[in-house]
Amino acid sequence: MVWYMAREGRFLPRAGYAALVALGCVLMGLSWAASLSRRVQALRAWGRVLSRLEAGLSYRPHTLEAFVAQAAQGEENRDVSAHIAACVTRMRETPLLSLKEAMEPVAMPELTPSDKAALALLFQGLGEGDEQAQRGLLAAVRMAVAAQMEEAAQQEGKDRRLATSLGFIGGGAVFLFLL
Questions:
Q1: Is residue 3 part of a domain?
Q2: How many domains does the chain have?
Q3: 4 SS3 class
């Protein structure tokens, strides 16, 4: 009934181990649920950045990196602001770098490949063409991001309950199994 831990020289009841493993299962479920929320929050933040880019299009700064940095100012989502800051830093270090080339090494783990594909148009075309072309590009990217956001919100609503339930049910089952 009691397991001996040779390293520590202590006894830990079997129920203690079972409780620790069960807690790990619960935390894994909660972590999965949190990752779904991070995706939705990141897409909402990118939507806000796109709106700021569109609003600042008429009086944009001379350089693309200053324009992108200006659109990211005040963004509350730390992940998105860190991604944009890394991109802007790369563009300042290497002035001939395009926005697409500056964003390539930036990992965005909170986004799915389809989310990144929706944003890829922005990185590829921002700064090229006249103001009307830029407005069209930003509108297209905003619509693509909005579609991804809607899909992510629906998936979060459904899968968040599943992840939380699986964590708690799995934790309870493991606890009972290990007793």
A1: no
A2: 1
A3: strand
